[in-house]
Design brief:
This protein has 332 residues and is an all-alpha fold. It has helices at residues 9-46, 69-100, 103-115, 121-147, 164-188, 192-200, 205-234, 237-242, 263-269, 277-308, 319-331, and strands at 57-58, 65-66. The protein is globular.
């Protein structure tokens, strides 16, 4: 039976579309960075204070002064606290759903966690400030009473409920479904040979998870955590609603039990001030810093994933073995 000719037009079209899609994403990222940089440079050139280390924010007038120190601190601290809360819980939920829960219970729990990702940010913000913040007040008081001698845990004199700690806990709930879903899929893909081999050697279920599942899923958990961190760094509406904005004349407070502003909430809360190129450029410069921080976080995560993926490292050369082999060859 004669076979028809094999055509490669479909392969070429698919390959071209795939390469074009990848190039398009790179161009979009590059254009966003160029746009932010082009609008930020004139404002940075006219800044009369230290942009990186100043906490003053007065971009208008003849002598504009603006700095991102306070914004950077609040953004990073709130995101780190959210990650410290969300990642262990997400890994625990993923392991429970994958290896501990019965099938009848695993599916509803997984769907319930996934539904958290469908809740709009404004709902999280309203729920966080109206319902969740009063519940956290005893926790905040207890921590501040025990560790108030540390500036980071010092109680706020105003007694506001819209503090950095409250926003961090809400951010942790928001990024929980992302980290859980990816971790769950990675843990479920652990090779059966690894799991069954560990159990056959007499390991308990926890020992099997510790020796086979967690090492295999380490890179996936790191990737999921970095995606959640990117969501926490750039979250706007929920943080804008929850955080109370301190007065400009008040001294800066580094406590997580005080109010503050992140990059995203600062830009969104002052969008009405974009009435001049100087003011707009100042906020664009803050957005540029957030863009760079997010880009660096994802780049570092990519490096960690590549180094922790099995088979990604080149085997080290044994110099002694190489030298002895060479000596044996010379003798022969």
């Amino acid at each position: 039976m004669a076979l028809g000719p094999v055509g490669h037009l479909g392969d070429r079209l698919f390959g071209g579309l795939a390469r074009g899609s990848g190039g398009l994403v790179v161009l979009i990222v590059a254009f966003v960075g160029i746009f932010l940089l082009a609008l930020a440079i004139p404002a940075l050139a006219g800044d009369k204070s230290s942009f990186l280390f100043s906490r003053v924010w007065n971009p208008g007038g003849d002598n504009p002064q603006f700095g991102i120190a306070a914004l950077f601190y609040t953004t990073v601290v709130s995101s780190i606290i959210a990650m410290l809360i969300a990642v262990p819980i997400a890994v625990g939920v993923a392991l429970f759903v994958t290896y501990y829960a019965p099938k009848r219970l695993a599916s509803p729990v997984a769907h319930a966690v996934d539904l958290l990702a469908a809740v709009p940010s404004i709902i999280y913000g309203l729920w966080g400030i109206l319902f969740f913040a009063p519940i956290l007040r005893p926790v905040i008081n207890g921590i501040s009473d025990a560790l108030g001698w540390i500036p980071v845990f010092k109680a706020s004199a105003t007694g506001d409920v819209g503090v950095v700690f409250t926003a961090s806990v809400v951010l942790a709930i928001m990024i929980l479904p992302v980290v859980t879903a990816i971790s769950r899929e990675i843990f479920a893909q652990t090779p059966i040979a690894h799991r069954e081999g560990a159990l056959a050697l007499g390991s308990t279920k926890w020992e099997m998870i510790r020796m086979a599942v967690l090492p295999y899923g380490r890179s996936g958990v790191v990737s999921a955590s970095m995606l959640g961190l990117g969501r926490a760094l750039g979250e706007t509406v929920a943080v804008l609603i929850i955080l109370s904005v301190p007065n400009a004349n008040d001294p800066w407070n580094s406590s997580i039990f005080a109010g503050g502003e992140t990059f995203a909430s600062k830009i969104a809360n002052n969008a009405a001030e974009f009435d001049s190129p100087e003011k707009t450029g100042a906020y664009i410069a803050a957005g540029l810093v957030l863009f760079v921080v997010t880009f660096l976080v994802n780049s570092i995560a990519r490096i960690i994933v590549e180094r922790s993926t099995p088979g990604s490292r080149r085997p080290r050369r044994n110099r002694r073995a190489g030298s002895s082999t060479a000596a044996e060859g010379a003798e022969s």
